[in-house]
Amino acid sequence: MDRHVGAKEVAIEYQPFTGLASNAIKKPVPQARREQLAVSDEVLTKIIDVARHVERIFGVPQDIELVVDEAGEITVVQARSITRLPDKFIPFNSPSV
């Protein structure tokens, strides 16, 4: 699996509910974290496992939104059928993933 560090200048952090329309706060990412991968290999493997499981449940590829907490636990918050796949789509059950 190939991995690359992407640009991360701003992070969105969620604060306890305050009664405002949104409890999401944008914060600058410290320079040291900008050069790091967003998730560990272990968490990425868990994400792939969850994606494969959700795809098996629905029988077709899914657009999945999930949350990874500080302990690396994953919660799926939404899954819906993908309506358009890229021309070079590689399914999760492919050995190259």
Strand order of the largest sheet: 1-2
- Fraction of residues in helix: 10-25%
Q: What oligomerization state is this entry in?
A: single chain
Approximate strand percentage: 25-35%
Order of helices and strands: EEHHEE
Category from helices, strands and their pairing: alpha+beta
Distance, first to last CA: 6 Å
Strand segment count: 4
Q: Let me know the largest β-sheet.
A: 2 strands, antiparallel
What does the overall shape look like?
Answer: globular
Low-pLDDT parts are: none
Number of domains: 2
**Overall mean pLDDT score?**
83
Cα-based radius of gyration, to the nearest Å: 16 Å
Task: Output the number of helix runs.
Answer: 2
Note down, in words, how this protein is organized:
By secondary structure, the chain is of the alpha+beta class. The protein folds into 2 domains: 1-37, no CATH class; 39-84, no CATH class. The protein has helices at residues 31-34, 41-58; strands spanning 10-14, 24-28, 62-68, 74-81. The strands form 2 sheets. Strands 1-2 form a two-stranded antiparallel sheet. Strand 3 (62-68) and strand 4 form a beta hairpin. The protein is globular.
